[in-house]
Specification:
about 45% helix; seven-stranded mixed beta sheet; Rossmann fold; disordered N terminus; 7 strands
Length: about 300
């Protein structure tokens, strides 16, 4: 029956089986190919649907415009804004801290240098003396002297106020705001070379000093070429505010003091290293009114 169903009575049995299997495989393969072709046509006709925006994990990048025209609106990406914010949060406090530290150290040096000078002056002036600080600047020398001497120290200058909490009065450049013979000592720390008329200042010093009072004068001395260069730089820095500076040698200062009726109690050379930002030769002069000049003034 198997051979009759095949319909190939003249073939050998094994040849009939092979031919039957080959025909079945051919028909099955043709059917599969036709199915694949049909599915390809269907898929090509279907348009892909866009994915919903809420399922998209990556946001589109915004372009970064690097144009040279500053008037145009700058467009930054989210990453750029985040980077700038991170830099501000990191470097902002760091920079502000450095600035605060610099100002604090500068203030400490200023107050400390004034304390050292006040301590040096307090060793010369008797305790309890009333002092006038001419050209007191920030006022810290006068502030420290008040505590060291146990009395008031008046500070005067051309500005409206002083930084330190002292008894301060404004100086008009001609007459000291103080009565005659009202102080035991007068202090001029690197002031006379700024004076446009030294005679006015020295006469006012003699007027406000009590009998036997002392005048302490600190001055820069242009002894060497280095000192002259430092004084020249100092003059360039201050001539716009106080006028041109006049620096003198030690012998010239002594002759000037003598011409205005002062006698030299003693003087002392100071180191250039006292102020490394202004390394110049310095000198301290301690003066008092000469007895001859006082006698002449009383007789007149």
């Amino acid at each position: 029956m198997f051979l009759a169903a095949i319909g190939h009575q003249n073939l050998a049995p094994w040849e009939s089986v092979i031919r039957f299997s080959f025909e079945n495989v051919t028909e099955d393969l043709a059917s599969r190919l036709q199915t694949v072709a049909t599915m390809s046509q269907i898929i090509s006709r279907v348009q892909p649907e866009p994915s919903p925006e809420q399922f998209s994990s990556a946001q589109p990048r915004r372009p970064l415009r690097l144009g040279g025209d500053l008037s145009e609106e700058a467009i930054f990406t989210t990453e750029t804004r985040r980077t700038l914010r991170w830099r501000r949060e990191l470097f902002g406090p760091l920079v502000n801290g450095i600035i605060r530290r610099f100002k604090r150290e500068r203030r400490r040096r200023k107050v400390g240098r004034a304390y050292d000078m006040a301590l040096e002056i307090a060793r010369v002036i008797p305790y309890g003396s009333e002092v006038l600080d001419i050209g007191c600047g920030n006022g810290f020398i006068a502030h420290h002297l008040s505590g060291m001497l146990g009395t008031r120290t008046l500070g005067i200058d051309l500005s409206n106020s002083a930084e330190a909490p002292i008894d301060y009065r404004r100086y008009d450049g001609t007459r000291f705001p103080a009565p005659d013979k009202s102080f035991d000592a007068v202090l001029l720390c690197y002031v006379l070379h700024h004076a446009q008329d030294v005679s006015v200042v020295l006469k006012e010093v003699r007027r406000v000093l009590r009998d036997g009072g002392l005048a302490l004068i600190y001055e820069d001395i242009p002894e060497t070429c280095w000192d002259k260069g430092v004084c020249w730089i100092h003059n360039q820095q201050w001539r716009g505010r106080t006028g041109p500076c006049t620096f003198r040698l030690a012998s010239e200062w002594e002759a000037l003091f003598n011409s205005f009726g002062y006698e030299l109690v003693y003087d002392r050379a100071l180191s250039r290293a006292r102020n490394l930002t202004h390394p110049v030769s310095r000198r301290l002069y301690v003066l008092r009114e000469s007895p001859i000049h006082r006698a002449c003034s009383e007789s007149n």
